[in-house]
Design brief:
This protein is mainly β. Helix content is 11%, strand content 39%. The strands form 4 sheets. Strands 11, 12, 13, 15, 16, 18 and 19 form a 7-stranded antiparallel β-sheet that branches. It has a 5-stranded mixed β-sheet with strand order 5-6-2-1-17.
Length: 319
């Protein structure tokens, strides 16, 4: 990160700075509905997060009003439930619906507040990730052994498809004294994607200076532009986790692979977040500021569907 900042500041030093004054008076102060909802095939609870935007002039109305929400699946209305206190599954003051979702389910949402235009959107649950085989292997890397996650899949030539991968790591600490409770820790895995053509999309400034990109919540996404209709094997790696063992404790690691088939809307939303987070030049006024993708009519936010494949916990590969 320091390397990035130094490079950007060196470039900025050659550019002429200027001061501009502008007024926020007259800017549209109309409030809008903010809606975030990600229907998936995982579990039976769909969270609906709804609020009202704050204008640049901080002129707000109806900030304590409760919304009216209409949520339908394939044209059938679902009961909206409200959760006041936080739980393991839901944040406080949130809305949700119950019921499992499957591929090709069509979801429509309408949200209205008093004296505000109705916000609405729609999405569809994609078909399952077209997995052929997934495995974990130990391979030689640039600095010794690396763990590689190898995923083979077959793209559908008849459709435009969007994909993602995320890997979760589980660290298990077993204590030899029986009176001490074992510990389990979970963490996302940062993947090395520089040698994977589907994910190493460095261009321009990043390519010149060899800067790597960051991915929103460690979800690595791609579309089918390079694999349209073909069978392909994705190969991404991470550092080795050899574990340890002594007379007091034993540490071992396991991994779980999540594969995503994303709706177009969800793919564009995640991509827009990645573009914003990686827009180093924009942060220093050297490039246009990017905006978040939204598919909420008369509102802000995202309604995006997702079909999720989840592997079993995979042991560390042996050498």
């Amino acid at each position: 990160m320091i390397y990035r900042i130094v490079i950007i500041l060196l470039i900025a030093a050659y550019l002429q700075s200027c001061d501009n004054e502008f007024s926020l008076e007259g800017i549209d102060t109309q409030q809008k509905t903010v809606l975030f909802c990600f229907p998936t095939t995982k579990g039976d609870t769909t969270l609906i997060q709804v609020s009202q935007s704050t204008s640049v002039n901080n002129q707000m109305i109806n900030i304590i009003s409760k919304p009216s929400i209409n949520f339908t699946v394939n044209g059938r209305e679902k009961e909206i439930k409200f959760n006041e206190k936080p739980t393991a599954m839901l944040p406080p003051n949130s809305y949700y619906v119950l019921g499992e979702l499957k591929e090709k389910d069509r979801i429509n949402i309408e949200v209205s507040y008093p004296d505000m235009t109705v916000a609405k959107s729609r999405t569809e649950i994609p078909e399952p990730f077209p997995l052929i085989k997934s495995e974990i292997a130990l391979k030689n890397g640039d600095y010794g052994k690396e763990i590689h996650f190898v995923v083979s899949f077959k793209d559908n030539a008849a459709t435009k498809d969007y994909y993602g991968i995320r890997v979760l790591r589980k660290k298990i600490t077993e204590y030899m004294p029986s009176n001490k409770q074992n510990q389990i820790e979970y963490a996302p895995v940062e993947l090395k994607v520089d040698k994977e053509p589907l994910l190493s999309d460095k261009t321009g400034f990043d390519d010149i200076f060899g800067l790597s990109k960051e991915y929103y919540r460690f979800i690595y996404i791609w579309d089918d532009n390079m694999v349209n209709g073909r069978e392909y094997t994705l190969n991404v790696g991470t550092g080795q986790y050899p574990g340890s063992k002594d007379e007091y404790q034993k540490e071992t690691y396991e991994f779980k692979i999540f594969l995503y088939k994303l709706s177009e809307e969800l793919y564009k939303y995640i991509k827009s977040i990645n573009d914003i987070n990686n827009n180093e030049l924009g942060n220093y006024g050297l490039a246009p500021i990017r905006s978040h993708f939204t598919n909420i009519e008369n509102g802000i936010g995202i309604l995006g569907g997702c079909n999720i494949y989840e592997s079993e916990w995979l042991d560390m590969p042996e050498e």
